[in-house]
Amino acid sequence: MSSVRVLHAFEPWLQTAHRFRSLSGPPLFRFFTLLLSSLTSRIMLPALLLPLLPLAAARPFNWGWDHHKNSDVPTALNPYPFQKRITYDASGKFRVLVMSDLHFGEPAAKGGVEKDANTTKAMKWLLENEPANFGVVNGDLITADLLSLENSTAYVDAYVAPFVEAGLPFATTQGNHDNQPNITHSMIVARERAVSYNLSYTGQSHGVGGYGGESNYFVPVFAKDDDTKPSTILFFFDSRGGKQFGNSGEQVEDWVDDSVATWLDETIDAFERYGWGDRIPTIAFVHIPVSAAREVQKQLDPARNPGLNEDNPLQTQSDNNKAAGPRRDLPFYNALTSRVKNLHAIVSGHQHGLEWCAKDTTVQNGPTLCQNKRTGYGGYGEEAWGRGGRVFEFDLQKVDREVYTYIRTLDGGKRAEYTLGKGFGRQ
Q1: Cβ neighbours of residue 137 closer than 8 Å, sequence gap 6 or more
Q2: How many contiguous H segments (helices) and E segments (strands) does the chain have?
């Protein structure tokens, strides 16, 4: 038998062992997670059992981080004990590439196959031409409205694949198109983490976020691997929206749930108890723009706030549930802006024709609101708007004061540049 045929015979076992190593959690947890997933995947049960039974009792695999370094860190502040820490690079820089509104999975009759292929190309181009330390996809990962339960998770695999190919750690928010009768935000997160080879840092805070909005979490970013306090925090919030799981047709409330405000208070309290404080430089991601963005948009100055402003007026949180009353996201917004003392920006997607950043001057010490650049070929919009991503560049020497951001378009252009910080937006 040739060596090629021997390798082919063992390929299912090798793939199974690789997936086992990619999952998060203790070995026995990973083993049973993979066992369950084998029922709906191509992994054969014998290929699963034979190589993994002896591995199930082994120590956790070390993916470049000594898990004992932070054994004294409280669980609430150590959300990724079985994954590599996210850190600045050796030059003291940290770059985040933000994509948005991918909309994988639109109907084939409306060009969905071609759109998905183009979206994959767009993601790969950005990952190659904007080298980053971390990736973010800020909602509407798929267009789940017309997908079946059987094929919806395949489109999760589609947006994960470019990050796996690039070997780039990433995290996501979910959007209104990701809560639909055949899939939920929680189902998307579970699938994403299972197929990401340990590169997904998307999290959930169970019992927080209301129906359809469980994905509220943070990713600490450290200057060095052995630091005890992060130099930057990336917060991710779930603005919900879409339709309830099943056939009821009921809408999901489209704002960050009030319970997130309490969770945020408790999280910042934990930061303070452990000595992290409340002044860590922070960026917050949420798919649907906060309701404050509507008044901010009215005050835009094209000279001071460059970038597309085609969705005018923009749609904000709680717009699709008007019977519930206006500005239902205020408890969350007030908690975020009052408790996080060094919030460089709140970054949103959802609207495909926006690129600007602007200060909320309607309240004292209001935050900066930034819009993503749409990346995907699905969803609404004009071709003239183009596609691309937003980049954030952090510098350890300046991160306490400022962060630089810009839009990179797929034609290589660079626009909507801003240096965000305390002085930004002041007259």
Answers
A1: 98, 99, 100, 102, 159, 170, 172, 173, 375
A2: 9, 13
pTM value is 0.85
Closest CA to 406 of 84, 87, 4, 96: 96
The structure tokens listed for 53 are 């039974």
Strands (E), 117-231: 134-138, 170-173, 217-222
Helix (H) or strand (E) holding 29: helix 27-37
Q: Are 105 and 117 in contact, with CB atoms under 8 Å apart?
A: no
Q: pLDDT (tens digit, 9 = 90+) per residue, 19-46?
A: 454 454 555 555 655 565 554 444 444 4
> CB count, 10 Å around CB of 146?
15
Residue 167 CA to residue 300 CA, distance in Å, equals 38
Which backbone phi and psi does 300 adopt, to 5 degrees? Answer: -65, 140
At 345-355, the pLDDT tens digits run 999 999 999 99
Cα–Cα distance, 321 to 317 (Å, whole number): 9
Containing 393, the helix (H) or strand (E) segment is strand 388-395
The predicted pLDDT at position 410 comes to 98
* Residues sharing a CB contact under 8 Å with residue 237, sequence separation 6 or more, in sequence order: 173, 216, 256, 260, 284, 285, 286, 332, 336
